[in-house]
From TrEMBL:
Signal peptide: none annotated. The chain crosses the membrane at residues 12-30, 36-62, 74-99, 119-144, 151-170. The keyword Transmembrane applies. Keywords: Membrane, Transmembrane, Transmembrane helix. This is Chitin synthase export chaperone. It comes from Sanghuangporus baumii. Pfam families: Chs7. It comes from the Eukaryota. PANTHER family: CHITIN SYNTHASE EXPORT CHAPERONE. The lineage of its organism: Eukaryota, Fungi, Dikarya, Basidiomycota, Agaricomycotina. One of its GO terms (molecular function) is unfolded protein binding. GO terms for cellular component: endoplasmic reticulum membrane. GO terms for biological process: protein folding.
Length: 216
């Protein structure tokens, strides 16, 4: 019932693209407050929003509502990913640079807060991840009646939740206890990468036969 090699590749490529952007935007490579950092941060936000759409799209394709690897799957997936990227990137730039008054400025301006931006960068990723795990759990347990692959997805879910906690709640604690050598963002990135790895292993475990027959 599941395959989606092409769709999974798109997700993995976007994740790999997000890693250097995350390194640049959360590190000290570019001076804080510069326009270049604002632009890269906006692009990173757009990539993340698109990334979570491709994650959810992989679950939708796994239900075989459309045939995986075909234009009926890849074209809508690509178009919506592009829309998520453009919308989130534009809103991020609008809030930070005050291009218009539609989405910004934030209050206070230095906080760079915006409800639409919060929805695209926080609410949407959480909702997409939740729906992904629900759909995949239904497919694996309810349809395929497998148990072992579900362990990978449970591990991925745990890593995702821990990564979000490290990012939003435990950053200062981790930084303080490691004498500022490691911060929450570093731990979150490791956990997110472990999550993606577990997702890949879970996907491979339920498509193992077709994977072995695949000719690169």
């Amino acid at each position: 019932m599941t395959s989606g090699r092409s769709e999974l590749r798109i997700f993995l490529v976007l994740y790999l693209l997000s890693l250097p952007l995350q390194l640049i935007t959360t590190g000290s490579i570019i001076r804080q407050g510069t326009t270049s950092l604002v632009v890269l941060t906006a692009i990173h936000a757009g990539v993340v929003a698109a990334l979570f759409w491709t994650l959810l799209a992989n679950a939708i394709v796994a239900t075989q509502v459309v045939e995986d690897g075909t234009l009926s799957s890849l074209v809508p997936m690509g178009i919506l990913a592009l829309l998520f990227f453009v919308a989130t990137t534009y809103i991020s730039l609008d809030v930070a640079l005050v291009i218009t008054d539609l989405f910004g400025p934030s209050d206070p301006p230095q906080a760079v807060h915006s409800t639409p931006l919060f929805v695209f960068t926080s609410v949407w990723p959480a909702a997409a991840a939740f729906l992904y795990f629900v759909i995949m759990a239904y497919i694996i347990v309810g349809v395929l009646r497998e148990r072992r692959p579900m362990l990978y997805y449970l591990a991925a879910a745990v890593c995702f939740v821990l990564g979000e906690l490290a990012w939003f709640l435990l950053g200062k604690v981790i930084c303080k206890n490691t004498n500022a050598k490691i911060d929450g963002r570093f731990i979150a990135t490791l956990l997110e990468t472990a999550c993606v790895g577990a997702l890949f292993m879970g996907w491979r475990s339920i498509t193992e036969e077709s994977w072995d027959d695949y000719n690169y």
